[in-house]
Amino acid sequence: MSESSSAKQAFEVESERDLASFRAGMAAVAGEVEAVLETLLPQPHGLHRRILEAMRYAIFAGGKRLRPFLVLNCSYLFGVERTHALRVAAAIEAVHTYSLVHDDLPCMDDDDLRRGRPTTHIAFDEATAVLTGDALLTLAFGVLSAPETHPSADVRCKLMSRLAQAAGCDGMVGGQMIDMEAGESRFDFGQIVVLQRMKTGALFEFCCESAAILGQAGTEHEERLRSYARDIGLLFQITDDLVDALGSTENAGKKTGKDAEQGKATLVSILGVAGAKQQARKLAESATALLEPYGEKAKSLKQLAEFLVTREA
Q1: Nearest to 29 by CA among 63, 68, 82
Q2: Residue 7 confidence (pLDDT) above 60
Q3: How far, in whole angstroms, is CA 129 from its chain's centroid?
Q4: Per-residue pLDDT tens over the stretch 42-82
Q5: Residues of 78-94 as b/e, b for ≥16 C-beta within 10 angstroms?
Q6: Cα–Cα dist 128/12, whole Å
Q7: pLDDT, tens digit, for every residue of 80-131?
Q8: 206: closest CA among 53, 99, 281?
Q9: 264-302 pLDDT, tens per residue?
């Protein structure tokens, strides 16, 4: 074996080890945030027990817990107390789960499979699914408002204000509205980027920015982490579209090929598979460069970019 071949093989082995370590770190974060969610979600009881059962069904359905991963690893950059970061992570996961429950409804994406099992409206019913989303969204703001999240009322108020912006009509909800009309529109590259930055990216931005807010690190760090999150959010969406276009329902844990069926323009349909993969790589490099001021502390956040580029589900 030549020296160059040996070096390449050693690099690939090291990369595989890093990826395995990264996946283990993601799994650990998922376990931590689920333990916190277990304490925050009431056990089913009383005449309203059905809504509590549905909330727990939806939020404990598994998943990568990518958003909590962002909160906790960005918080690490500023020495934020772990318990504070975990509560914010749990609140964001509640908002994200609410969005999935509503997104799956027949009046929206009409999906019957999520994370490898029946969606909430299939497992329960449509009315219960609507109320489940409502309850999870409300829960999130209750968590952020509590003194256990941060001793400073100013910090808690800023967290709630920014989450409201990220999840509302000029963020995630607005992006969802655009997406619902996408099948009847001919969106160009720029319009799809706007759609995805609202629908997916806005909540990613809050995940990262919330760490700087918790750490009271100042606007410069808030803006830098928002920029990182914009790249990561768009990278995530491109790879999600690639999974939808190329992946299987079994691996993805949800129905694939829906964008093509509905005639929706995506970055993959506009750029092509090769072009989308190239754009994903550029975004990963840009995101990684933004983290340079944080040095080794940002290792997991840098690895996330590589993980997303290579994801298959």
Answers
A1: 68
A2: no
A3: 20
A4: 999 999 999 999 999 999 998 889 999 999 999 999 999 99
A5: bebeeebbbbbbbbbbb
A6: 48
A7: 999 999 999 999 999 999 999 999 999 998 999 998 899 999 999 999 999 9
A8: 99
A9: 778 888 899 999 999 999 999 999 999 999 999 999 999
Show the tokens assigned to 32: 């931590």
* Amino acid at position 286, single letter: S
Residues in the chain: 313
The one-letter code for the residue type at 279 is Q
